[in-house]
Amino acid sequence: MAHFPVNHPARPIYRAIGGLTGLYLAGFGVLGVIENSGAEFFAQNDTQVLGQGANLGYSVISVILGVILLLAAVIGRNVDATVNKFSGYALMVLGLAELAVMRTDANYLDFSVATVIVSMTLGLVLMTAGLYGKVGTDEETHAWQEARLLL
Question: Where are the bilayer-spanning segments (predicted)?
């Protein structure tokens, strides 16, 4: 799409932001795995990790997503932009779904309000990093500049 920035001057910063988000998720997940070792995978025991509710299931999901984000940041190019964008979408959907079932027995990932807020904030950060981190050809950059000037 011509309206999304290509070769944005701050794309290395957005790539680093995606990597730092992955580092946070991986660290949170590792701490969650340590805290929940020996518990059921989808236990609803109100365990707190960094002020957020997390069980072993969500901790493993966080570790996997964090490692994927870190690998994408290392690979770079458009891989990181794509992974960041879709991971952001996934975190937003996950946050909304868990917000809908938070006070029910369907809260399998043991989310709290703080976990929903952090999940949705990280989703917004990753979507921003994904939208501004795209690398393209000179023609794509020129088309983006033209579309930007027409607005």
Answer: 12-34, 54-74, 86-102, 108-132
